[in-house]
C-alpha cells in the first residue's frame, strides 16, 4: 500500500527481491527523491552511494 506523501519511509525495501528488481526499485526511488523526501532503512549497503545522507545506527558496547 502506498499513497502520495511529502516523505516516504521504507523499511528494508530490497530484502526479498532479486538484484534486477532491486535496481528497478532504486531507480524509481531516485525519481521520487527529486520530488519528495525518501528515507530507506536497510541492512544492504549496496545503495549507499545513491544517498544524499547516511546515518549508520548500530550497537556500541563499552568494555
UniProtKB/TrEMBL annotation:
Gene3D superfamilies: P-loop containing nucleotide triphosphate hydrolases. SUPFAM superfamilies: P-loop containing nucleoside triphosphate hydrolases (SSF52540). This is Uncharacterized protein. The lineage of its organism: Bacteria, Bacillati, Bacillota, Bacilli, Lactobacillales.
